[in-house]
Structures are given as structure tokens and as C-alpha cells.
Design brief:
383 residues, alpha+beta, 7-stranded antiparallel sheet, 3-stranded antiparallel sheet, 14 helices, globular
């Protein structure tokens, strides 16, 4: 009798598990192995991967060491620098204030930074908060990143914009920025009455229980479980010191987080935590803005991309006919990538503590396999 009940229970549990199994589980399981194999082949010191289906983690893998030659392994709570993936947080935070009528995408940036000016004063007055977050300011791409790389302070860089002339009218062409993108920080702080870091913690990190996430150089260096940066040389990867230069640009490159944190961030952006990131915010920040034709020429992605735009802190790709919301990041010694399919409610993120193009290869291949699997699933349903 007990044996019969036990067998029925096992069958019931198996049936429940099969009902909740992800249709992409086999793709994810294979990809987890490939992730590890390619990082080992490329001799990247360490990395972490997560795949989320709706509100569930269906794949998580960590590889290697926090520091080359060290003994401490990367785990799910090891914190990396997110670099430009930080922009996804800035876009969401700014959109929250817009929907609360504290900010407007149509407001000129001069409202919050009166000293900002280009050679043509009228041109500078035409740049709005929407242009800033949407990477459509009309400025020369990556304006003054060279000075950030040289560790020049932000307040010394701001007056230099008077030397620039726009390459197009605001809103017309794509011009990726880090310094100008971070102008949004002043608007957010002035309208919220909180520092950017405080507001990000109050509105996003704390409610999503992103317990290892933080902003800034000091916060990162105070962590015990952090991944150290490595740059690639002719002799292999070499550990370098964490630099504080891009931490000046908190909205553009200031967030630190673990792969566990990014799982929660993916879920929130796929609509799983509407009390934190409502549907209206998601729709706002993922509405295509300026077209980004340069993205269509990316070496690892060009075979798959049909179109590309920038939203507000996110890129919007058309990947083999399917929408893919995406952003990547790079800062000395770290690379990051995060993406999700709004249609499939499937998301993936990777973090590496060594500069390597292998992350782009892996990302493109993953989404190619996922969308192929989706097509096969649809065909099976129709047959």
C-alpha cells in the first residue's frame, strides 16, 4: 500500500515538474556547458551566467576565479562592475519620475544644468532629457570619453562642451554618450531630493532585494566577494587595479551587482514585479527611438540582426524577426551583457572579469538557438 502511494506521489511530482518545465531548458543546459568551455578556451579568469524564464531561474553557471591565480571562486553572489548595463537602471529610474510628473522627457537639460552649452547656444537649449537618455543628443559620439579615460573630473569636462558643434539636430541621429548621458543624474537628484545612489537603492535595489547591488567605487572596494578586473595582453590576462574614472558617471557606468541581482533585474523588466517596474515604465523605456545602424555591423551579431534602435537606456534589436531588448557593457577589466525577449519572457545575462569578445559570440549564439527553438515549438503546435 505504502509503495503504491509513494509511486503515485512520484508520478504526480514528475507531472507537475513537466508542466512547469521551460520549453527552452535543453537550449539552456547545453549553453551552460558551452559558456564554461568557451571561457576556458579563451582563458578568461572568471564569469557568471544566468537564464530566467518568467519568474524562475532555469540556468545559472559560475566559472573560474575572482582573481587570476587566486583560490577564491566566482559564485552567484560575486559582484562585478556592470559598466554600461548601468544605463538600463538610469532609464528606468528617470522614467519613473516622468510618469510621476516630476520630470518630462521634453524638458531641456539646461533646466537642470544651466552651465551646459555648445558652440551654438540655441542648439544646446534644444537638447532634452529624452534626447539624453535616448542617445540622440546630436553630439559627436562618445564626446569626452577620452578625458574620462585620462581621469579628468566631470566638473572640468562640462565647460569643454562649449567647444563642440552638433553633428545633427537632437532626436535625428544616434550618438552614443557616457558623459552627456550622465547629465540625467542632476535632473533626477534635483527633482527627487535624494542622491542618485539613494534613489536607486530606494526605488530598485531594495524592493527587488538586489542585496549585493550598489553604486560607486567605494561601495565596490568595500566588498569581500568581488571579481577583480583583468585586461588581455600578448602574454594573456593580467590583473589590473579598479579605476574610479567611470564611476564619476553613475548613470552611465556606476552600478555594481552579482549575477543573482541581474536575475531579479531581468524578471522586473519582463513584468514580474509590476509594483517596482510597472508595465507603463517597461513600455516607455523599450519604445524604439533613433535607429542605430552601426549595431547592424557588429561582427558577432550582424548575421542575425534585421534592425536596431535605442530606447531609453536599452537597445531594441530585431533579431531574426523577433524583438530583443539588450545592452552590453565594457569598462577596464570587465564586460557584461544582458538581454530578454518580451514575447518569450526569457532573459539572459553574463558577467566576465576579463575583457573578451567571447561574451558577444556567446550572446548572439544563445539567442539564435532560443528563437530557433521557439520556431520549432510553434511548428509542433501547428502540426
Amino acid at each position: 500500500m505504502y509503495k503504491f502511494v509513494f509511486c503515485v506521489l512520484l508520478f504526480s511530482l514528475s507531472a507537475i515538474n513537466s508542466l512547469h518545465a521551460s520549453p527552452y531548458q535543453s537550449v539552456v543546459d547545453n549553453f551552460k556547458h558551452e559558456f564554461e568551455q568557451k571561457l576556458a578556451k579563451s582563458k578568461v579568469p572568471g564569469g557568471a551566467l544566468v537564464v530566467v524564464d518568467g519568474d524562475r531561474i532555469i540556468g545559472l553557471n559560475t566559472y573560474g576565479k575572482r582573481r587570476k591565480g587566486g583560490s577564491e571562486k566566482i559564485d552567484k553572489d560575486t559582484v562585478f562592475r556592470l559598466a554600461s548595463v548601468s544605463k538600463t537602471f538610469a532609464g528606468a529610474l528617470a522614467s519613473m519620475l516622468v510618469h510621476e510628473h516630476k520630470l518630462s522627457w521634453q524638458q531641456p537639460i539646461n533646466t537642470y544644468i544651466p552651465t551646459f552649452s555648445l558652440q551654438d547656444l540655441q542648439a544646446s537649449q534644444s537638447i532634452t532629457l529624452g534626447h539624453i537618455v535616448g542617445q540622440s543628443t546630436g553630439l559627436m559620439p562618445n564626446s569626452y570619453d577620452n578625458l574620462i579615460n585620462a581621469n579628468v573630473k566631470f566638473d572640468k569636462i562640462l565647460p569643454k562642451f562649449t567647444e563642440l558643434s552638433p553633428i545633427c539636430n537632437p532626436g535625428v541621429c544616434y550618438s552614443y554618450q557616457n558623459v552627456a548621458f550622465s547629465f540625467i543624474e542632476q535632473a533626477i537628484e534635483q527633482q527627487s531630493g535624494h542622491s542618485y545612489a539613494e534613489l536607486l537603492n530606494q526605488r530598485i535595489f531594495a524592493p527587488l532585494e538586489m542585496n549585493t547591488a550598489s553604486i560607486g567605487f567605494d561601495a565596490f572596494n568595500q566588498l569581500d566577494n568581488r571579481a577583480e578586473p583583468h585586461v588581455k595582453t600578448r602574454l594573456g590576462f593580467r590583473k589590473v587595479t579598479v579605476r574610479d574614472n567611470y564611476y564619476q558617471l553613475a548613470p552611465a557606468a556606476g552600478v555594481n551587482a552579482s549575477i543573482s541581482d541581474l536575475a531579479k533585474w531581468l524578471m522586473a523588466n519582463m513584468g514580474q514585479f509590476p509594483a517596482v517596474i510597472p508595465k507603463t515604465i517597461i513600455e516607455d523605456i523599450t519604445t524604439p527611438g533613433v535607429r542605430t545602424t552601426k549595431e547592424l555591423r557588429r561582427r558577432e551579431w550582424r548575421s542575425y540582426l534585421d534592425d536596431a534602435h535605442y530606447g531609453k537606456g536599452w537597445r531594441i534589436y530585431e533579431f531574426e524577426g523577433e524583438a530583443l531588448i539588450y545592452h552590453a557593457g565594457w569598462v577596464s577589466g570587465y564586460v557584461a551583457e544582458i538581454a530578454y525577449s518580451p514575447k518569450l519572457k526569457l532573459g539572459m545575462a553574463m558577467l566576465l572579469n576579463g575583457e573578451s569578445r567571447v561574451i558577444a559570440e556567446l550572446g548572439a549564439e544563445f539567442w539564435h538557438r532560443v528563437f530557433n527553438q521557439h520556431k520549432q515549438n510553434q511548428q509542433l503546435k501547428q502540426s
